[in-house]
Amino acid sequence: MKGVPVHGRGLELGELPGVPPSGAAQHRSNHTPSSAAPTPQSPLTHCRSTESHTHSSATAAPAHWPPRRWAEPGRWGRGREGWPLYPADLSALGETGPAAGGGGGSCSKMAAQRRSLLQSEQQPSWTDDLPSCHLSGVGSAPNRSYSADGKGTEGHPLEDNWLKFRSENNCYLYGVFNGYDGNRVTNFVGQRLSAELLLGQLHADHSDTDVHRVLLQAFDVVERSFLESIDDALAEKASLQSQLPEGVPHHQLPPQYQKIVERLKVVEQEISGGAMAIVAVVLNNKLYIANVGTNRALLCKSTVDGLQVTQLNVDHTTENEDELFRFSQLGLDAGKIKQVGTIRGQESTRRIGDYKVKYGYTDIELLSAAKSKPIIAEPEIHGGHSLEGVTGFLVLMSEGLYKALEAAHGPGQANQEIAAMIATEFAKQTSLDAVAQAVVDRVKRIHCDTFASGGERSKFCPRHEDMTLLVRNFGYPLGEMSQPTLTPTQGGRVYPVSVPYSSSQSTSKTSVTLSLVMPSQGQMVNGAHSSSTLDEATPTLTNQSPTVTLQSTNTHTQSSSSSSDGGLFRSRPTHSLQPDEDGRVEPYVDFAEFYRLWNMDHGEQGALTVS
C-alpha cells in the first residue's frame, strides 16, 4: 500500500511518520517490531497518496535505519519532513547530498526540492484516513488586527492546528497546537505525533508510568525529527553565508550580492518558527495530559454543587516559578528573564522546533550564559485522571483563545468564563462542533466589541491571535434545553449556579463558583434593559479567594434566592394568539414569581412591575 510520496518514492507500509520500517522503533518501545507497525487489516494503515507519481516497488528499508545524521556526505539526504532519502533517490534527483552544498547549483536544487515539498504539504495528509473521534468537536478563528475604523484584517495565515482521533483499542488522542512564524511546525507535529501514539505504542495493559514514558518518547521523536527535517535548509544557509563578505551588514553589500541576501532571507524563514502543544490521551478510562508551552487543558465535571472546572496543566511562561528556577540552575538571570517577559517574541519557555532558540541561544543576550539548551520541548505530563463516573467535558484551547478573552475582560478568569460559555452552548446546540465554534465566535465578538467600544480595555484589544477550541464530551447533556438559559454574559444580576476552577497563577487545584447572570437593574424599555450591554455586564471576579461568587460589574450584593420552575410555563395554546389593541400577545411564560423574588431582593427602588 502506497502512502505519501517522498521525492518520487512512495512510503511503504511501516514507513509512516515516526514509525521506522523493519521494526526500527524498538529503541523507543518495549513492543516487538510487528506491534510497532500496523497490520494490513488495520484501518490506521489506509493512507492515500497525494500525488500521482510512479512509485518504486521497493518495500525493504536499508539496514542502516535510523540513518546517520550527515555521517557520510554524499551517501544519503533528508526528504519530506525528515524522512530519509537513500542513494537511489538521490541519484534519481541528481543530488549529491549535503557535501555538495558549497556551490550555488546544488543550493538551487535543494531549494527547488523544498519548494516542491512545501507545496505537497498543502495536500491531504495520511492522517486524513485515521478514524475521527465523534465524541469531540472543534471551533477555530484566524488572527485579526483592527484598524482605527474598526475594520479587521488577518496578519498571517492560520498557524493553529488540532487533531482528534481514536484507535481500535479504545485509545483516543486529542491535540491543539499553537504555531508562530508559520504553520510548518504545527502541521509537522500533528502528523508525526499521531503516528508516534496511535500505531501500537499504547496498550490497554499499560500503567500510568508506561503511558508517561510513551508520551515523553513521542515528543522527543517529534522534536528531533523536525530539526532533522530542516537539515538541507541549514546546509544551504551555511553555503550562502560563506559566499558573502564577512563583517559587512547586508544592507551595505554591493548589488551583485543582493540575490544571495534575498535567498538567505527565504531560507531563514524556512528554518524559523515553532509550536506549543497540548495533547490529551484517553486510555483505560483515564485521562493523560502532555503539555509544552502555553495552551491549556480544562476538565469540567458536573457535581452536586455545579460544574467543577480544573486546569490540568501549568503554563510554561516566564511567569512560571518552576521554569524560572530551571533557568537559574542553568546559570541564567531568572529575575531579568521574568522582567523582560518574552524570549525572542514568545512568552513560552518550552517549544517544539524554533531552531534559532534551540541552537542559537548563545547569540541571544538573555540566554547566552546558559550551560545547556534553556528552551526545551520536554512535555510536562499529568494523569491518569480517572474518568469513572464522570459527567462533563474536556477542553483543549490554544493560547490565542483565552488571551483574547483576558484582553477584553482582564486576566485571571478566562478559564471559568469559557467553561460557562461551553456549558451554555451544550444546551443550545445539537453538535459538538457547533458548541466549540459558537464559543470561539463569542470570544471573537467580545474582543472586537471591546476594541470598538473605546473603553478602558480597548487599548488591550488591537489584535488577537489564532484561536482554537476542542471540546470532548463525557456524557454531558447536549441539545437538551429544558428551561430558559441565560448566558454568563447577558448582563445584570448574578445568581449562583456553578463552577469551580483552577487558577492559572498557581499549580494547586483551587476552585471558584460561577454564577448565572440575571437581568440588570435598569429601566425596562419594551422588555429590554437599557442600562447595560452584553460586554459591559460580563461578570468578573471581585477577589482571588479559592472559592468566590462571580458578580456583574454593575451590582454589589449577592442573592442566594432560588425557586422551582414548576409554575413558570403556561400551556402553549392550540390556536394562534391574536394581538391586543396595543399590538401585544399574551406571554407563554409567567414571570410573576421572578418579579416577586426580584422585588424582595431590591426593595421599592429597583422594583419591577408587570405591564
Automatic annotation (TrEMBL):
Keywords: Cytoplasm, Endoplasmic reticulum, Glycoprotein, Membrane, Phosphoprotein, Ubl conjugation. The keyword Membrane applies. Its main location: cytoplasm. InterPro entries: PP2C (IPR015655), PPM-type-like_dom_sf (IPR036457), PPM-type_phosphatase-like_dom (IPR001932). Residues 137-474 form the PPM-type phosphatase domain. It comes from the Eukaryota. Residues 1-79, 94-154, 523-584 are annotated as: Disordered. GO terms for cellular component: cytosol; endoplasmic reticulum membrane. Residues 116-126, 523-558 have a biased composition (Polar residues). It is found in: Cytoplasm, Cytosol; Endoplasmic reticulum membrane. One of its GO terms (molecular function) is protein serine/threonine phosphatase activity. It holds the Pfam family PP2C. It is a peripheral membrane protein. SMART domains: PP2Cc. Residues 32-43 have a biased composition (Low complexity). One of its GO terms (biological process) is signal transduction. Key adapter protein that plays an essential role in JNK and NF-kappa-B activation and proinflammatory cytokines production in response to stimulation with TLRs and cytokines. Mechanistically, associates with the catalytic domain of MAP3K7/TAK1 to trigger MAP3K7/TAK1 autophosphorylation leading to its full activation. Similarly, associates with MAPK14 and triggers its autophosphorylation and subsequent activation. In turn, MAPK14 phosphorylates TAB1 and inhibits MAP3K7/TAK1 activation in a feedback control mechanism. Interacts with XIAP and BIRC7. Interacts with TRAF6 and MAP3K7; during IL-1 signaling. Identified in the TRIKA2 complex composed of MAP3K7, TAB1 and TAB2. Interacts with TRAF6 and MAPK14; these interactions allow MAPK14 autophosphorylation. Interacts with STING1; interaction takes place following cGAMP activation and promotes TAB1 recruitment to the endoplasmic reticulum, triggering MAP3K7/TAK1 activation and STING1 phosphorylation. This is TGF-beta-activated kinase 1 and MAP3K7-binding protein 1. It comes from Melopsittacus undulatus.
